From TrEMBL:
It comes from the Bacteria. This is Uncharacterized protein. It comes from Paraconexibacter sp. AEG42_29.
Length: 190
């Protein structure tokens, strides 16, 4: 698996800001997502570069009407986050959020005369986030071309402390001390 942070498929930054944490995915082929956890709630932005809801299917490029219109003021700053903008256009094809005290998620619904895909790529983008260790192990087997121990994946998904045996089960080539130090820096028990 990739040992270089800029080559990683998934990333987590526990110090995105003074009050926010950021989880992200970039597949290296143009698809990505960001999840920002803040005191005000959670904001999720996904971008499927092949989606009919990609801003670059419009001329000139623009976010589809309705997709981000209802994002509440408490989370609105994330829509315009410079890290998610290319050439003055937010790279977004799916948007969802949940304010701190909300009881359910809200979704941006694009309105257009064009018949877009139904979910902006959400099904594919977020497919590994279902909480099932088998799902992630299958993804990793395909993407990294390695067989993973489902027990080791489950160990991490349950937040149990990381140790040398689990690290080696996930990546026999990883430097254990480096991984443990990085895990501690992220706030993961090691």
């Amino acid at each position: 698996m990739y040992d270089q942070p800029d080559m990683r498929y998934h990333r987590f930054d526990p110090r995105w800001s003074d009050t926010e944490r950021h989880a992200s995915m970039s597949d290296g082929g143009g698809d990505e997502y960001s999840i920002i956890f803040s005191p005000e709630g959670t904001y999720v932005r996904g971008f499927d570069h092949e989606s009919a809801l990609s801003p670059w299917t419009n001329e000139p490029p623009s976010v589809f009407p309705g997709l981000t219109d209802d994002v509440p003021a408490t989370l609105r700053r994330h829509v315009d986050e410079p890290a998610f903008i290319i050439s003055d256009v937010p790279s977004i094809s799916v948007c969802l959020w949940r304010e701190r005290h909300a009881t359910e998620w809200s979704f941006g619904v694009a309105t257009s005369d064009v018949e877009p895909d139904t979910d902006g790529g959400a099904t594919e983008l977020f497919s590994t986030l279902n909480g099932d260790p088998t799902t992630y192990a299958e993804f990793a087997t395909d993407y990294y071309e390695v067989e993973l121990s489902i027990d080791a994946v489950e160990h991490v998904m349950q937040g149990r402390p990381l140790d040398a045996a689990v690290i080696r089960a996930l990546n026999p080539e990883a430097d254990v001390d480096t991984v443990l130090a990085e895990a501690r820096d992220l706030g993961y028990p090691a």
